[in-house]
Design goal:
heterodimer, A: 289 residues, 1% strand, elongated, disordered C terminus, B: 645 residues, alpha+beta, six-stranded antiparallel β-sheet, 11 strands, flat
Chain lengths: 289, 645
């Protein structure tokens, strides 16, 4: 039986079976056509019977061959060896268990920004970490940002980004308190910004904040000079936009002309926003300039 | 105008795909050749839609048409021309558009290749399946992944693509190569479905799709290697493969595709493994969709993953549909997939291929389990967990070694059964090559069980591949390099180069963090030496253009000046390192800044020296060449001739 139902090289060929099934369908359709043509009177009875007999005989032969091949496929069904099946199943389960154990051993909590598997283990630079701290800046609850910047400065005390923005956070906080405490905080903020400029004179934000802090202190001449220094230093677009949003130049000139009473130690409403503006900007565009 | 053109293209593609499905279904059902023959016209229509949409999007990107949301979110005036074009595949909607373009390209290619057989039900069903896949992707573009959404209030400029994606020209080529691979597997999948539906499950359809599978596999291979190269050149972490979920997503179909390329030979030769081969092909295609889900749905966090979108459930649903349909079809046709053939001896070519397939399947399972486990865990327990690199390293190292062993032994094995004498004769040469490589490695100072074993096995396998090529070229001249078997041996040589490079760089790399000063002071040297390479800090450097600001350090390495830097793209969201890599055949020195050089005359530099890294990329190239050789037809085998010697 196997010989009758197999194709080349003694193998079972599904293509041959499919071909025979196609032939069977064609022959059965042809018989239906003959029936309808005869019923319509297009075919005389003698021809009809001759042709129908031929088609039927061919269809029967094809169906016999189909049955033979199907029997071949059926005969190829393997008797399952329970021991082998069990061994294969045990092997699969064992391998899965080893893999599961290995997964469990290598699993850890996923922090924000971590990938679900593996991941590039790039050690962030102090500046990169400091830039992530910028997003924590808040005038009313400074503790998170301060501790974040302090952690960076513990590793790199001279880091210009951390010094600049920690200075700015402290300056924002100083605007919410009064008296000596405000003065002390403002001084501390300016010292941090100055330290940043000393390490990296090109860091635009440090120079921008130096101008803002001088204006807030009431030293308008210094603020004007710092602003000129800032402009001369080819500042980054982000830092420039902060200054432009504050209209700091106009305010300094107005203050110098004595036309405004804003030359006080209190934080002018508009200058309290650089941090929030920058923080917002930092959320989507971390400043680096 | 760009939006109108693009949307028109997408609608044209969608209508074309829908029309093709209806027409082909009617043609198949009614056995109407003229309807089935229309597949070619519809293929051109669908491809025309995709081309129109891509042209519209590229035009929008080049002309900075920020009225399109995609351009506003990913384009920028500051982005250089090459990366402006490549921005198309830098985000979700554009990458789906690229997918559709490539898919319709393959659809046209299949329609042209089989133009004389479009009325053959096998081809008609395959075309219908491809149009269903086209319909899904065009549907995505009219739904959640619409690249042509218009903004009522367009911005004047955009942020540009992710800085990491505009930092190296490789990024312009790596994704399209991957997509050519991913999408290419649609062709053999479509024929597999067609074979299952029509019941023509013999070897005919396999032979028809053999080259299509090889082409897709070759593109996927090149895409993965280019991705690793990009990672090494751009990310500056000293690695090239991190088992990142997106890397795993591309690796999974590669594993199952590689298994299939081997096991299909057993079916062609012995008529065995029919269910297995169909399952592998369907799994490969399903894994490309799963990979797309992983990378495009926002379900994972990685540099490749895009923001969350509603596309996820649709991709997952499509993945489920593929599984359901293929499992159903295989179950339905199970009765005619049987074969009376048996593996006569485990020590035979088919025995080795079977073992190879089991190992590849285990490899794929390990990677899949590690990749989806955190997602399943989070879905069930809400715990956010991560599976670390050690899991993948621990599990895949032994699997890799077993595969190296099989690469050495399988090519010399005859079909059906090998005698001890045959094995001794044929493995002698490769064994000496392996021993020679091992002795050389020990002589130059290599130590450690795993890397030394890898070197020996690589030499062993390399000897086997070279032996086969030498015998083939002796018999057939240069044609001995062409054809599936001999081209496959060239691919093996490429894999072995990669294997040796992986083992060497994984085991013998050195890394050093150094704070360097122009003028040496106590604790801050101006010159450091790492594994024989002398690095001197010359001073900081800055560079600024419309696109980015760059602060770097000039470092003299073995007499040549290199300039690793930290870049800030003007419209970008992050600072990124730009390492400098010095490659030689012996090792690579990667210099990367760990912080912006200060004005205090110092620079913090990470120096990584990795042996044999360049052989990863050369190995990838050899694999590509081998694939090309394997695609071309080799000398016809005389039926009575032995296929192994």
């Amino acid at each position: 039986m196997a010989t009758a139902s197999t194709g080349r090289a003694g193998r079972l060929d599904p293509d041959e079976l499919a071909g025979l099934e196609e032939q069977r369908d064609f022959l059965l359709r042809s018989i239906e056509d003959l029936d309808s043509e005869h019923a319509a009177g297009d075919l005389d009875t003698v021809d009809y019977e001759t042709l129908r007999g031929e088609y039927t005989a061919r269809a029967a032969e094809v169906i016999r061959q189909i049955d033979s091949r199907k029997a071949g496929f059926e005969a190829a069904r393997r008797d399952r060896n329970p021991r082998r099946s069990l061994a294969v199943a045990a092997g699969v389960v064992l391998f899965a268990a080893v893999a599961g154990w290995a997964v469990a051993r290598s699993m850890g909590a996923r922090e924000a920004g971590d990938t679900i598997t593996g991941g590039v283990n790039v050690k962030q630079s102090a500046s990169q970490r400091a830039q992530e701290c910028i997003q924590e800046i808040s005038p009313t609850s400074p503790s998170q940002a301060v501790s974040c910047f302090r952690a960076v400065l513990d590793d790199d005390p001279r880091n210009p980004v951390a010094n600049t923005w920690l200075g700015w956070q402290i300056a924002l906080t100083s605007g919410l308190v009064e008296g000596d405490e405000a003065t002390q905080l403002a001084d501390a903020a300016e010292q941090l910004v100055e330290r940043a400029i000393e390490v990296d004179p090109d860091y635009s934000y440090a120079r921008a904040f130096r101008a803002v802090l001088a204006y807030r202190r009431g030293d308008y001449l210094a603020a004007r000079q710092y602003l000129k220094d800032f402009e001369a230093g080819n500042p980054s677009p982000d830092a420039r936009s902060v200054i432009e949003q504050q209209q700091l130049g106009d305010k300094i000139e107005q203050a110098l002309a004595g036309s405004s009473g804003e030359a006080s130690t209190s934080v002018p409403a508009s200058t309290s926003s650089p941090a929030s503006t920058s923080t917002t900007a930092a959320g989507s565009t971390r400043p680096g300039g | 105008m760009n939006a109108a053109l693009g949307t028109g293209g997408v609608v044209l593609g969608l209508v074309g795909a829908l029309g093709a499905i209806v027409t082909l279904a009617a043609g198949i059902r009614g056995r109407r050749s003229e309807l089935m023959g229309m597949a070619r016209t519809y293929a051109f229509m669908v491809a025309g839609g995709a081309v129109l949409a891509v042209v519209a999007m590229e035009r929008a990107l080049i002309t900075r048409d920020f009225s399109l949301e995609f351009v506003a979110n990913n384009g920028s005036h500051a982005t250089p021309a090459l990366f402006n074009v490549a921005t198309l595949w830098s985000a979700l909607e554009g990458s789906i558009l690229l997918w559709a373009l490539i898919l319709t390209g393959y659809t046209v290619a299949v329609a042209l290749k089989f133009r004389d057989r479009l009325n053959d039900p096998l081809v008609a069903w395959a075309m219908l399946t491809m149009f269903v896949v086209c319909l899904f992707f065009f549907g995505l573009m009219l739904g959640p992944a619409n690249p042509f959404r218009v903004l009522a209030d367009p911005p004047l400029d955009g942020p540009g693509p992710n800085p990491l994606l505009q930092n190296h020209p490789l990024m312009a080529f790596h994704p399209p190569m991957l997509y050519l691979g991913y999408v290419g597997f649609t062709v053999p999948f479509a024929f597999a479905v067609a074979a299952l539906v029509t019941g023509r499950l013999g070897e005919g359809w396999l032979i028809e799709t053999r080259r299509w599978t090889m082409i897709a596999w070759a593109f996927l291979t090149v895409g993965i290697v280019l991705g690793a190269w990009w990672s090494h050149e751009v990310l500056g972490w000293g690695g090239y493969w991190a088992w990142d979920p997106v890397e795993n997503a591309s690796f999974l179909p590669w594993l199952t595709g590689t298994a299939y390329l081997h096991s299909v030979m057993v079916q062609e030769r012995r008529g065995m493994l029919r269910v297995w081969n169909l399952s592998l092909l369907c799994a490969t295609f399903a894994l490309t969709i799963l990979g797309t889900f992983l990378t495009r749905s926002g379900v994972i966090d990685s540099v490749h993953a895009f923001s969350e979108s509603s596309i996820g459930p649709l991709l997952l649903g499509f993945f489920g549909l593929i599984l359901l349909v293929t499992v159903g079809l295989v179950g339905w046709r199970g009765d005619r997939l049987r074969s009376p053939a048996r593996i006569d001896s485990p020590v035979s070519r088919e025995g080795a291929f079977l073992l190879n397939n089991i190992v590849f399947a285990a490899f794929a399972f390990v990677v899949l389990l590690g990749t989806v486990f955190p997602l399943i865990s989070e879905a069930l327990t809400q715990d956010r967990v991560s599976v670390g690199e050690p899991y993948f390293e621990r599990m895949t190292t032994p699997i890799g070694l077993v595969l190296l062993f099989l690469m050495a032994v399988a090519p010399v094995l005859p079909w059906r059964k090998a005698s001890a004498e045959t094995l001794r004769t044929r493995l002698l040469w490769p064994g000496w090559v392996g021993t020679g490589l091992l002795a050389f490695a020990v002589a130059v100072g290599a130590r450690g069980l795993a890397p030394l074993l890898a070197f020996f096995l690589a030499g062993f396998a390399g000897g086997a591949a070279l032996r086969q090529l030498v015998l083939a070229t002796r018999r057939q001249g240069w044609r001995g390099l062409v054809g599936r078997t001999n081209g496959g041996m060239v691919v093996h040589l490429g894999v072995l180069m990669i294997g040796v490079a992986l083992a060497a760089s994984g085991a013998y790399s050195v890394e050093r963090d150094a704070r360097m000063c122009v003028q040496a002071t106590a604790g801050c040297p101006s010159t450091v030496t790492v594994r024989g390479h002398e690095i001197t800090y010359l001073g900081p450097s800055t560079d600024m253009n419309a696109a980015r600001r760059q602060v770097g350090a000039q470092l003299k390495l073995d007499g040549r000046v290199h300039e690793p830097a930290i870049q800030q793209f003007m419209n970008g969201t992050q600072q990124i390192g730009k390492p400098s890599v010095h490659n030689t055949a012996r090792d690579s020195v990667l210099l990367t800044l760990t912080d912006t050089p200060g004005a205090d005359d110092s620079a913090s530099v990470k120096i990584i020296v990795q042996p044999l890294i360049v052989w990863l990329w050369i190995g990838g190239g050899v694999m590509a060449v081998g694939s090309l050789l394997a695609i071309f037809p080799g000398k016809r085998r005389v039926p009575t001739a032995a296929v192994s010697a």
